[in-house]
Amino acid sequence: MSAKLIPDIVVGRLPVYLRALQRMLSEGRRVTSSQELGERLGISAAQIRKDLSQFGEFGKQGTGYTIEYLAERLKTILHVDGVWDVAVIGAGDIGSALARYEGMNNRGFRVAMIFDSDPEKIGTKAGAFTILDSSDMANVIKEQGIKVAMLSVPASAAQKIAEVLVDAGIKAILNYAPINLNVPANVRVQHIDPVSHLQRMTYYIE
Amino acid sequence: MSAKLIPDIVVGRLPVYLRALQRMLSEGRRVTSSQELGERLGISAAQIRKDLSQFGEFGKQGTGYTIEYLAERLKTILHVDGVWDVAVIGAGDIGSALARYEGMNNRGFRVAMIFDSDPEKIGTKAGAFTILDSSDMANVIKEQGIKVAMLSVPASAAQKIAEVLVDAGIKAILNYAPINLNVPANVRVQHIDPVSHLQRMTYYIE
Asked: Which of A17, A192, B78, B115 gives 20 to 30 Å between its CA and that of A140?
């Protein structure tokens, strides 16, 4: 099946389904339904069935979904059935938090390295990692074949560093800086934008 | 128009549209189209027109949208035409970054206070803020009528603190801890989940 045919907004819901399924597994659950998933997530059951049907048949009418099977299939579809090494760029507050973040376990990623340009930080620790010199960034990323980066640098530096990352072979950038990055079409960027999440909630406050 | 009738996934796209419109404004643009917005955002033009049509008439066939007008209308719909005071709970790496975050300007929010329970941190600075004692949290939030909180505490503490926040009148919680919060139906929770964003990108990496 070609990846090109699935709308990105559908792809974007798969991680949300996977997270809910993994939570159900951790609660000891074995079977669920599009109705139950929908209630947990605030998405209609019909939407969930339609989204999943784009990738194959995962459940039977009337018996619902086997949670473990559906989770494994979603991990394969999202290419997180293995573990991606992630480079964290910028060892400020957010980068340091990412180096210590415990929410990646069993979800397809591990932080492999963290870089900064500040001589005072290089060689010191962020979580379990020794902060590396960002002037070595391109070489290390190339040598180790890293494809995924989290960018936690000041907004003024983000575009220039993104270009270095792309040249070094990075294909996916999670951007914490509040600016738009310009990258080639074969590189994906996602923003962590806390304000969008806040706005989605204030809609409901009278 | 009742807020109840609009699906939450549609509401969730409005902040994304608003962010794109505000960026266009900062580029000096005056008029746009659902086609252009769609290309910027990876959402179909038809979806954008359908989403916006749920809230009224914002453009004319053939002439597109006046960016400033549409942005103002979206701000009103999302209740961010004013400024919400936000309480940050937890002055660790992420809380400290939030206290200094510059991505909220002109988007409907400002950090108003930051709390921590660590006696070593209370009274010290995080950005421009003096860190307050979290044992005063409920009273301060009640007195000042704060409705919005960002929760950047360890996962083990998050549920208990969320309950205190809800009792104090908080209606919207942006949760950075990698756990599910149980809150009453009249309180909204959004997660900052970097792994979901990463998974959405690895889908596209061969």
From this structure: A192
